[in-house]
Write a structure and sequence with these properties.
single chain; elongated; 5 helices; mainly alpha
């Protein structure tokens, strides 16, 4: 038998033994997780009596395996790998709590409170839910999208600020023009008020302008017929002085 062939067979056997060992340990801890949850749930609630042990088994052992394989095979980048390994360690911690609690109950060293299984499964569920959300957020594609979106938001905010500054300058210029127009209207109205100030009876105090004439009308005085010499008498002759 060649050395290379023997090495391949040895590696295959070792891998097989490793997988078998892992399955045995996982089956043993899984049974303990299920048993401690089943035996401590209240007997009067048949739904929780079935749901809590199954849910705990899925979250404890299932979560531990999922996050370890996610760390090795799927996670990309430091943030996502960190989420995977932290979640795997926490789920392993929950498996150990369930295992040690069941062993303690079996030996009579202590008894878990009836509310403890529900609380433990609830905490584990919350941890895995948060880890799953964090795993999605820390994926390279999502992080890339977040960074690009952040830069786009920065440009948009700067554009809005620049528009605001430009509109403020335009508004200031237009306001000055409009103020000049209003100033002209105010001055014109004030001038008209000063030139036509009302008196006590509401009429103007300015004296009326009388046209030239004899004061008996607007028509001027008309000389007598016959010329000015007719004013001294009808018998006066031309060139003679009146008597």
């Amino acid at each position: 038998m060649k050395k290379g062939t023997a090495g391949s067979i040895s590696a295959l056997v070792i891998n097989g033994i490793g997988w078998l060992f892992g399955l045995v340990v996982l089956g043993w801890t899984g049974y303990r997780s299920w048993h401690i949850l089943y035996t401590t749930v209240a007997e009067d609630n048949s739904v929780l009596k079935f749901v809590i042990p199954v849910l705990g088994l899925v979250i404890f052992e299932g979560g531990m395996l999922y996050w370890f394989f996610n760390f090795v095979k799927k996670a990309e980048g430091t943030p996502q790998k960190a989420v995977s390994i932290v979640a795997a360690v926490l789920d392993t911690f929950f498996v150990l709590i369930a295992f040690l609690s069941d062993v303690t109950n079996a030996t009579g060293a202590g008894m878990m409170d009836k509310a403890a299984p529900v609380a433990l499964v609830g905490i584990a569920t919350a941890v895995n839910l948060i880890a799953k959300i964090a795993d999605y957020i820390t994926s390279p594609e999502v992080l890339h999208s977040i960074k690009i979106g952040g830069h786009s938001d920065t440009i948009r905010d700067m554009a809005y600020q620049q528009l605001k500054d430009e509109m403020t300058a335009i508004a200031d210029e237009k306001a000055k023009q409009y103020a000049g127009q209003l100033r002209g209207e105010v001055l014109g109205q004030t001038e008209r008020m000063l030139n036509a100030k009302p008196g006590g009876n509401g009429q103007s105090n300015r004296a009326p302008i009388t046209p030239p004439g004899n004061g008996q009308g607007n028509r001027p005085a008309t000389p007598p017929i016959g010329g000015p010499q007719r004013a001294f008498g009808s018998d006066a002759k031309a060139g003679e002085a009146p008597n």
